[in-house]
């Protein structure tokens, strides 16, 4: 009898999860933790790694199909905050959920460690966080006290509203930890909208345009950079307008370390440009 109980306990501890991930970042983290084979559903926006493309889709983040989630019989559904309605619906159906916060560097790293503990993948979680911390160290003090503006979207004209990184997101922390400052000094959260006059007023030394899938959208780098070069800002005077077109740049997952490596290259390029002048 004791042997039977031991076997049952062992099997339960190693029973396979049935995980549904409701954001690209959470999906990537789960795969990076080594739990990809146990993902049974995700959203149409989950594109990496390539294995995830064949996973059943349950809709978008804010358009999740409750019926599709139920049909997949998950043991846990992972979601980011602001999806409380769905969480309540799933809880009422006795479906286990976990709300994950990944807005800042601290919450990104903490969430990776929490998921590592939850899925018994502590070593992988520790390795991921170590990689992020190592990359953060490499961006420090390459240049100092420069104003950096991070811009979202494929803006071929600056006459329309421009979304930028506010001061409560991990992008802002990356800028400050590098020894520089966000060109937008504002209490507005998330991705504040600026017009051309606002942009000129920030007068950034460096502009980083997060615009992935240029080719797919039929755009060239010149189409995005040229409008900025016409502005009377420091970045245009030194030609310090950069495009980051990797999709991972806007996803707060384990691949944050890759964005930090790209950010380091931008800082080094700026430093070299200005040493030559």
**Tally of individual domains:** 2
Computed over alpha carbons, the radius of gyration is 21 Å
Query: Total helix count?
Result: 11
Low-confidence stretches: 3-14
Largest sheet: 6 strands, mixed
Give the termini distance in whole angstroms.
81 Å
What is the typical, i.e. mean, pLDDT? 90
- Look at the structure and name the CATH superfamily of the largest domain: Nitrogenase molybdenum iron protein domain
Q: Which sequence of SSEs, written as H and E, runs from N to C?
A: HEHEHEHEHHEEHEEHEHHEH
- Shape verdict: globular
Share of residues in helices = 40-55%
- CATH C-level name of the largest domain: Alpha Beta
Number of extended strands: 10
The CATH level-2 architecture of the largest domain is identified as 3-Layer(aba) Sandwich
Percent of residues in beta strands:
5-15%
Structural class: alpha/beta
CATH topology of the largest domain: Rossmann fold
Notes on the protein architecture:
The chain is of the alpha/beta class. It has helices spanning 2-13, 24-32, 66-71, 84-92, 105-118, 122-138, 170-177, 196-202, 221-229, 234-237, 256-276; strands at residues 19-21, 39-41, 76-80, 97-100, 147-152, 162-164, 181-182, 193-194, 206-210, 241-244. It has 11 helices and 10 strands. The termini are far apart. The chain is globular, with a radius of gyration of 21 Å. Helices cover 42% and strands 13% of the residues. Strands 5, 6, 7, 8, 9 and 10 form a 6-stranded mixed β-sheet that branches. The protein has a 4-stranded parallel β-sheet with strand order 2-1-3-4, sandwiched between helices. The protein has 2 domains: 14-136, Rossmann fold, CATH 3.40.50; 141-276, Nitrogenase molybdenum iron protein domain (Rossmann fold, 3-Layer(aba) Sandwich), CATH 3.40.50.1980. Mean pLDDT is 90; it is low at 3-14. Strand 3, helix 4 (84-92) and strand 4 (97-100) form a beta-alpha-beta unit.
